[in-house]
Amino acid sequence: MKRIFITGALGQIGSELVTALRKRYGTDNVVLSDIKADKSEFSNSGPFYQVDCRDSKKIVEIIKKHGIDTVYHLAALLSASGEANPQAAWDINVNGLYSVLEVARETGIAVFTPSSIGAFGPNTPRDFTPQDTIQRPTSMYGITKVTGELLCDYYYHRYGVDTRGVRYPGIISNVKEPVGGTTDYAVYMYYEAVEKGRYTCFLKGDTYLDMIYMPDAIKAGIDLMEANPERLRHRNAFNVTAMSFCPEDEAAYIRRYIPGFEIDYSIDPVRQALANSWPNSLEDYAARVEWGWSPEYDLDSMTQDMLKVLQKRKDRGRK
Description:
Helix content is 45%, strand content 15%. It is an alpha/beta fold. The N and C termini lie far apart (42 Å).
C-alpha cells in the first residue's frame, strides 16, 4: 500500500487528486500539505500540515513520520500569476522542486511533478507537437517548467530518484475555480454559461489550445505513478491530451445544451501572448505506448458533465 505526501494540496489539481488517492489508498495513507492554512473538512479529514515546500527539513520530518514512499509535488505559481511576479515564480516553482528532489535523494521516495504545455514556445511545432521537440518558452512560467523537467531527468539519471511527470494541457474542473492560468477561460465559460447565459472571454475566439477534463488529469497522474518503470523510456514530461479546441468551439458545444448562450471578447494581451506561444494540439503517442494513457472525455462529454454538475449546484443554492 502506497503512502503518499502531496504538496500544494489545496490547489486546483490537489483538491481533486486528494479525493481520488484517499479513495484508492485510504485517508491516513495520503498526507496533505500546503503553504496556506486550512480549517475545512477537506484538510481535517486526514493528516494535514501547513508547510512551505521549500522547507526541506520539515518535509523530511513529515516523510519519515508517516513512512511516505511517493510525493505528488503540485505546489507552483501558474502562468499569468508567474508573469505578474516572475521572481516568485522562479523561487516557488524551481527552488520548491529542488527542495523536494533533494528530499527524495535523501529518503529514496518517488516524485511526481507536473509540467505543462507552457514548457513549449513560439518556435515549437504548433500542430501535433511531438514528445521530443524544441522548447524555448518566452514566459517565466514556461522557463520554470522546462527547468523542472531537466531537474527531474537529472535526479533520475544521476541519483536514481524515481521521478515521473506529465505535461498537462489546460485543465477544466467543476470543483474548484482556477486562479492565474491562461487556459482558465474554458472553465469560466462553463460557470458563466450556467450563471448568466453569457461570457466575456479574455482570449481570441480562434485561439486553439489543448485541454483535459480534471477526471482524466487525475487519472493520468495516478496511472503514471503506478506504471511499470521498466516500460518508461521518457519517465518525465509525457505529453498528455484529450482534446483541442478554441473559445468559439466551446461556445458552440455549450449552445447545444443552453441554446441562448452568448460570447463576446475583451482580450487580455498578456494571456493572449502566452497562448500564442503554445501549441494548438499535442501528440501523446509516448504516453499511450509506454504506460497506456487513454482519456475518457472529449469536448462534448465534458461539456455535458460540466453543465450538469454546475446546474445542480446552482439549483441547490436556490433552495
